Amino acid sequence: MSENISIDTIKKPIAEYMDLFEPRFRLSMKSKVALLDRITHYIIKRKGKQLRPMFVFLSAKLTGSVNDSTYNAASLIELLHTATLVHDDVVDDAAYRRGFFSLNALWKNKVAVLVGDYLLSKGLLMAIDNKEFQLLQIVSNAVREMSEGELLQMEKTRTLNIEESIYFDIIRMKTAVLIAACCAVGVASTGANEHQIELARLMGEKAGIAFQIKDDLFDFGLGKKTGKPTGIDIKEKKTTLPLIYALNNSSGSQKSRIINIVKSNSKNDKKINEVMEFVFKSGGIEYSQKLMEQYTNEALAILDEFEDSEAKTSLKQLIKFTIEREK
Description:
By secondary structure, this protein is mostly helical. Helix content is 74%, strand content 1%.
């Protein structure tokens, strides 16, 4: 099981590329403006597990060798994704990101928005300067869908009466398209054909959906090291898969009562616990776990269409890691 496998072990076939990637990525954000350099240094310092570049490099090795185009692909993903995160923190008025102060908390909204714009422009220019038009198209489509997913969620969650199909539309666009893009650009960077690129994209999308369902389950305390208070999604009126399943499989009066609690009592811990207990009793957790495993297995089945290699083994472990992680 991947819970016993460290990120360093999974990273082994691409460790040298990951080590070279960090200074290249840092260079891609370079600016003559001292304030920007200070902020981008802060961004680099607080990087997480680097799962996205890992998906890019491991996917590249499924169909060929890592090359300059692969490094460009990983940098493009990170630049455009970091830009969206910076803007998201402004939109959400978030003070923290991964346990660190957000840019808007430290430098205020105006600076954060401009930094996001700068990172976006750096990504676009890097792709154009290196004539990476195919990679730019894949990543730009992902960023467009991520924006649409955020807006669709805002539109639909006001009523808290979400169908499961709409939930999957939202998480596919908000979360899964980025992992899908990582896998697609990795394979595309090696000169792979359209069929292979589409297979990689679909594999990443399935893995990304499973990843988001795992995040939903964290809210119900299913993870020993999440560091995330249980019930926080409910307090923020977010409709996650366990809650949607529970609501759609309850009586009309019970459903109305739960929706009313989420809408009106989001700061009342006793009421939030009532909602969580309702979800557990309704089978929402088991149902979500079952679907998470289903999407993971579908991603692994697609991966099996590629030739066996050390990178393929690591990619299998990485996909499993995304659903077996504890935070």
